[in-house]
Amino acid sequence: MDCIFCKIVNGEIPSNKIYEDDDIVAFNDLSPQSPIHFLVIPKRHIESCNFVDKENAEVVGKIFLKISELAKEMGFDKSGYRIVNNCNDDGGQTVKHLHFHVLAGRSLNWPPG
To answer: Which of 6, 15, 26, 68 is the right S-S partner for 40, CB 3.0 to 4.6 Å?
Structure first.
């Protein structure tokens, strides 16, 4: 499999990790769109939200719990943040491995851009 996120999980590609356990990893985005911008991914390859099922749904819950914990630890829980997940081509998904962008540190307007 030629998945860049799987290569990060396996240590084949370096990343600036901010959290890691047996199931998930969080690392800073290489092209940040806000002062704080990191990704949280499951270590197990899940292609997109379309592939979340009863066998792997627990890890998605664990990701959201960890995002909440990191927001508190990093001090942006009160000011606010955005969690973004893109699904498939029209949704803007460029890496076919389930991932969640966490953006904070500035006002995030809607619509984005």
So the answer is: 26
Does pTM surpass 0.90?
yes
Residues 6+ apart with CB under 8 A from 76: 36, 104, 105
Q: What is d(CA 16, CA 56) in angstroms, rounded to the nearest whole number?
A: 25
Fold of the CATH domain 4-104: HIT family, subunit A (3.30.428)
- Which tens digit of pLDDT belongs to each residue from 4-42? 999 999 999 999 999 999 999 999 999 999 999 999 999
Cis preceding linkage at 14, omega within 30: no
Whether 99 is catalytic: yes
**Catalytic residue selected from 37, 45, 97, 99:** 99
Determine the Cα–Cα distance for residues 35 and 95; give it in Å rounded to an integer.
22
Q: List phi, psi (to 5°) of 39.
A: -115, 150
